[in-house]
């Protein structure tokens, strides 16, 4: 799950870097609303999975799921 969360975070990270490059060239630039909503959903999915990570780790430590 940790690797999946890391992989999922690549998309927003690369997009944020791209947006920053655009803003440096044109300070009036604002990313399209559809892209912002997509990144918002991905980051929320990451947070939800990250919240589950310690719960699943505790369950695994107790022998559940083996």
Descriptive terms for the model:
mainly alpha; 66 residues; 2 helices
Tell me what the structure shows.
With 66 residues, the protein is mostly helical. It has helices at residues 2-25, 33-61. The protein has one domain (2-61). It is built from 2 helices and no strands. α1 runs antiparallel to α2 (33-61). The mean pLDDT is 93.
The gist of it:
The protein is mainly alpha-helical and 66 residues long.
Task: Give a topology summary.
Elements: H1 2-25, H2 33-61
Taking all Cα atoms into account, the compactness measure Rg is 17 Å
Query: How does the major sheet shape up?
Result: none
* Content-based structural category: mainly alpha
What's the quaternary structure here? single chain
First-to-last CA distance: 15 Å
Report the sheet-strand fraction.
under 5%
The low-confidence parts are none
Can you write the helix and strand succession as a string?
HH
Calculate the mean pLDDT score and round it: 93
Bin the helical content.
over 70%
User: What's the number of extended β-strand segments?
Assistant: 0
Q: What is the count of helical runs?
A: 2
């Amino acid at each position: 799950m940790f690797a999946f969360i890391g992989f999922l975070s690549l998309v927003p990270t690369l997009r944020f870097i791209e947006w920053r490059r655009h803003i440096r060239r044109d300070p009036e630039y604002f990313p399209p609303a559809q892209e912002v909503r997509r990144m918002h959903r991905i980051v929320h999915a990451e947070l939800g999975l990250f919240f589950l990570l310690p719960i699943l780790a505790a369950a695994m430590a107790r022998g559940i799921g083996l």
